Amino acid sequence: MSRVRRCAVIAHRGGAAEVPENTWTAVEHVAELGLAWMETDLRVTVDGVPVLSHDPDLVRLVGVDKAIGEMTWEELAEHDAGDGRPHVRLDDALAAHPDLRLNVDLKESAVVQPALQVVRDAGALGRVRFASFSARRLAVLRRQEPRATTSLGVGDIAGLLLRAEASLALPHTRWGWAKGRTDAVQVPERFHGVPVVTPRFVAAAHSSGLEVHVWTVDEPAQMRRLAALNVDAIMTDVPTTAVAVLGG
């Protein structure tokens, strides 16, 4: 009998339905909740400073038509990130909260090397997981730093799905992502109406040495259903609710 796993809570963008996303307020919110992990996004300024931001510009959140990648850090710091304070620099977040773990989505190729260097300089390789929809970005990062922890790329997720449906068990050493420390597969419960997170998928991931993280889960009933499927974590915009439902 497989063991029952505790379903952890990962605050998506710091809890985007509860606080301004990817801001200092969001980072502090995660810390105050006592959560181990915050999911966030990384962009880079023109002078190479990685900052927490999902969008490439400031339009949606603060109504300023300026691209982050076209500003220096000094110029970006003059603008509100959404909570009355400047954007959060990755190096500052790691320094200010040494116990916090960050699941960072590399939103552009230009941020890969600067982000990796910041994490190295902070001695934080053990508390940062790199993620991306781009398998190429993750492959570049793994080549540059075999000690880096990453999630599974999109192509390998598709392979895992096929193997799960075919009930094929392959050891993770047979996979291309074995280079580096890939520890999680991060997926939606359904994709274009097709179920992704099934008992077979969860079992296949676990047998390959991977945790299963599901995004973005905001409804208590869905949280309980996924916990019953033995997933390892949910990413949620309502971490306060998730903590109450799942216990943290």
Walk me through this protein's architecture:
- The protein has 10 helices and 13 strands.
- The longest helix has 12 residues, at 154-165.
- The protein is α/β, with parallel strands linked by helices and 248 residues long.
- α7 (154-165) crosses α8 (199-207) and α9 (220-228) packs across α10.
- Strands 1-2-6-7-8-9-12-13 form an 8-stranded parallel β-barrel, surrounded by 5 helices.
- The chain starts with 7 loop residues before the first strand and ends with a helix.
- β7, α6 (135-144) and β8 form a beta-alpha-beta unit.
- It has helices spanning 24-33, 59-62, 73-76, 90-96, 112-121, 135-144, 154-165, 199-207, 220-228, 239-246; strands spanning 8-12, 37-44, 50-52, 57-58, 64-67, 101-106, 128-131, 149-151, 181-188, 190-191, 194-195, 211-215, 233-236.
